[in-house]
Amino acid sequence: MAKQALIEHRPWLLASIVCATGFYFLRDNPIGEGVWGYVLKGGSVLLLALYVALRTPKDENRYDGMLLMGALLFASAGDVAIELDLFVGALFFAAAHCVAIILFLKNRHGRPSAVQKLMSMALLLGTPITSYLLSGRLEVGIYGCFLGAMASAAWMSHYPRYRVGTGAVLFVMSDWLIFSQMGALDLATLPDILIWPLYYAGQVMIATGIVQCLRGEQPVR
What we know:
- There is one protein chain.
- This protein is mostly helical.
- The protein has one domain (about 1-215).
- It has helices spanning about 1-10, 10-25, 35-55, 60-85, 85-105, 115-135, 140-155, 160-180, 190-215.
């Protein structure tokens, strides 16, 4: 029944999940290499942006929906660009984080708890430091500032932390696994197994969590 409802009412979300699953299992297969791999990878988050565009109410919340859609579009471009040039991909993701930060700061929690503030500060400071230590590269540490600011702002927003905040943390963890491959830390096959699922799950949690709040289906805090 839930699957049927997903097909009927959220077809673009379902299409996004199909693309993401296809990319994960076909990325090391000749079918998933080259153009088809770029289509599946970029299409996964691009379809999430389309889902946001169609599900955001046409009221005062539409501006927040546009910001969310913009962040996802930049991320989708980054997903493809990073396969061709790491620096260009990082620029797209930094832009995505900047747009997301604007959205989250625009929707700050009115009365954040002490734990919420502590977690936000830990993400803001710990993310760039950990990014640098894992990679041993200053430019990665600088990128980590954008990543950490995004996750910190998400945690301090009024959106549900168990969805949006946790999604941002999964995004951070995915990038940390990427950075571990640049440095001396050897995690064997763990990054290859977990990078994409953590990243995509984080994006889905952020997108669906915010859309549900915009539609009034999930109370804001």
